[in-house]
Design a protein that fits this description.
five-stranded mixed β-sheet; single chain; alpha/beta; 14 strands
């Protein structure tokens, strides 16, 4: 079975969804099985649609081999991810690895490649100025591994919810279970006390971004229990 045959269902779904966009003139299936998306006033892009729990380097390479003209490999479906290594491999080949949501947002930009969610881009740019942070490693589309001086690394998932409650906490952990903390980005975002207690009970930190910048100075239980000085 060819790559195009394996993911025909998700490609057909994406073709219908993309056709509904106001800024898309047409969506065509290429001979290689990719989608050629012609945009109004912007360069056309070629997308290779897949649907796997975690997009890895091998599948990126397979997609590129099947159609070297593609602009992105797009992992489409709920709770599906791509690894940091697959993102790096895609970039080395001159293309992108995106979730469908990221690809959808990137289509609205003049330059399709290089899109990154605003909260993650902000975190990457500001964390490197923290005195404890030595380097940042991309684990997947929403998780950063923060390597720290004199403290062990921490895996952080970044979310953006005005009020993060227990249901939002549980949903986040169902998608990203192996993390040390959840950081709710946004100047006005916050979390409920119940969510904080639930996270702490599971050994997971829950912070606003401002709180997280302080918590980075600590390890183990002091990291989890960190609260800003009053």
């Amino acid at each position: 079975m060819t790559l195009a045959d394996r993911f025909q269902g998700v490609r057909n779904w994406a073709e219908r969804a993309l056709t509904e966009r106001d800024d898309v003139i047409s969506v065509e299936v290429t001979q290689e099985g990719s989608l050629l998306v012609t945009r109004n006033g912007k360069r056309a892009v070629r997308l290779n649609l897949v649907s796997v729990p975690m997009l890895d380097e091998a599948l990126v390479e397979e997609c590129y081999s099947s159609d070297p003209a593609i602009d992105a490999v797009v992992n489409s479906g709920k709770e599906l991810h791509y690894s940091g290594k697959s993102k790096e491999r895609a970039h080395s080949l001159g293309l992108e690895a995106y979730t469908f949501k990221e690809a959808w947002n990137a289509l609205g930009r003049q330059e399709f490649r290089g899109y990154e969610p605003a909260n993650l881009a902000y975190a990457k740019n500001t964390l490197l100025s923290h005195r404890r942070v030595s380097r940042i490693e991309r684990v997947c589309e929403s998780i950063l591994r923060i390597h720290r001086r004199e403290h062990p690394p921490v895996d952080i998932v970044f979310v953006d919810a005005y009020t993060l409650g227990v249901a939002g906490l549980q949903q986040t952990l169902s998608w990203h279970s192996n993390v040390d903390a959840i950081v709710n980005m946004g100047a006005y975002n916050h979390y409920t006390g119940e969510a904080k207690d639930a996270a702490t009970g599971m050994g997971i930190g829950l912070f606003t971004y401002k709180e997280f910048m302080g918590a980075l100075n600590y390890a183990d239980q002091r990291f989890l229990d960190y609260t800003p000085p009053q």
